[in-house]
Amino acid sequence: MPWIIRGLRNGVLTSKWPSSGDEYFDTFHATIDVDLEAAVNVDPGTLDDVAKDCPTAAISTVPGLRLDRGQCILCGRCVDSLPAVFRWAPGSGAAALSLDQLLVGDLPETTETVELLRTELAAKVRSLRRSIHIRHVDAGSDGADEWEIQALLNPVYDIHRLGIFFTASPRHADILLVTGIGTAGMTDALRATRAAMPDPVVVIASGTDAVGGGLIGGGYTQGSGIGELLGVDLLIPGSPPSPFTLLHAFLLALGRFPSDKPTYTPKKRDRP
After folding, report:
1. Which residue has the higher pLDDT, 223 or 86?
2. Which H or E element spans position 249?
3. Whose CA is closest to 138, among 70, 94, 189?
4. What whole-number distance in Å separates Cα of residue 21 and Cα of residue 157?
5. Rounded Cα distance, 83 and 246, in Å
6. pLDDT surpasses 80 at 264
7. Given a cut of 50, is residue 269 above it in pLDDT?
8. Based on C-alpha coordinates, what's the Rg of the chain?
9. Between the CA of residue 215 and those of 54, 89, 143, 238, 240, what are the distances in Å?
10. Which pLDDT band, with edges at 50, 70 and 90, does 108 fall under?
11. For residue 124, what is the enclosing H or E element?
12. Position 15 pLDDT exceeds 50
């Protein structure tokens, strides 16, 4: 009977996010930010060295300093090398509607394009107000993304409480969640899965591998992201994205993420 005593002592562990704030959601480092003002005072050669040290070439310095979060695997080398310019960004909300939104740095604003994408996505999911079913396809992942997706089913995140479920049949699915680089061997299977799903369908590329190929893209596998294989509605950077980042993306895609996002307030016993 020790598990009963342990359960009573631990209490309810399931997160109440997004109806209330969660410390882990607010503090987890899901992305990296770039301080362009600080970069002006840094020697260009130093910036070039940091860019060359990036294992996925996510950092570029020509014509200006730029970080591609779609290629970033969150290794932290740039943060360690140049913390005045590169820093961890707190918060799990990392999903984007387009590749342009994943680029941080010397870029023009694309407000009109983003609003158009939001409108198109809203029109697509307008009928998805019932319980949502997700069909997950591994199109050549290294396995890390799958561990985080599986965690959504544990008692801490409990994705079912939000009316979101995983299904083995594409004919019952509303969201196609794809991980992996989109290898040549999975191309036909991925497209067949999408064709079997009734419209409207939201396609989500989950993880750096699915967004842009990451570390394992290219080569004999011929995969460098799923964008060339399917029309993608939402991109989730990260290697791998955390469960909260995935939850945020699902709710964002479905128009369920509150505009006034609650923040975590420490309880009295958590305060020093």
Report:
1. 86
2. helix 243-253
3. 189
4. 13
5. 27
6. no
7. no
8. 20
9. 11, 22, 13, 12, 12
10. low
11. helix 111-125
12. yes
Distance between CA atoms of residues 266 and 272, nearest Å: 10
| Locus of tokens 């993304």 | 145
pLDDT of 268 over the 50 cut:
no
- Helices 243-253 and 144-151: crossing angle, nearest 10°? 70
As a whole number of angstroms, the distance between CA 152 and CA 15 comes to 11
Q: Which residue has the tokens 């964002």?
A: 252
Backbone CA torsion sign across 119, 22, 86, 232: negative
* Secondary structure class of 155 (helix, strand, coil): coil
Amino acid, res. 205: A
Burial string for 100-113 (b: 16+ CB within 10 Å, else e) reads: ebbbbeeeeeeeee
Strand duo 59-60 + 66-68: pairing:
antiparallel
Report H helices in 126-217.
144-151, 187-196, 208-212
Query: Could you give the CA distance from residue 86 to residue 33 in angstroms, rounded to a whole number?
Result: 6
Distance CA 96, CA 103 (A): 10
The bridge status of strand 175-179 relative to strand 132-138 is parallel
**Total Cβ atoms within 10 A of residue 55:** 12
Q: What is the phi/psi pair of residue 159, to 5°? A: -60, -25
Chain mean position to CA 118: 17
**Coil, helix or strand at residue 16:** coil
Q: Is the peptide bond before 18 cis (omega within 30 degrees of 0)?
A: yes
Sheet of strand 59-60: strand arrangement: 59-60, 66-68, 103-105
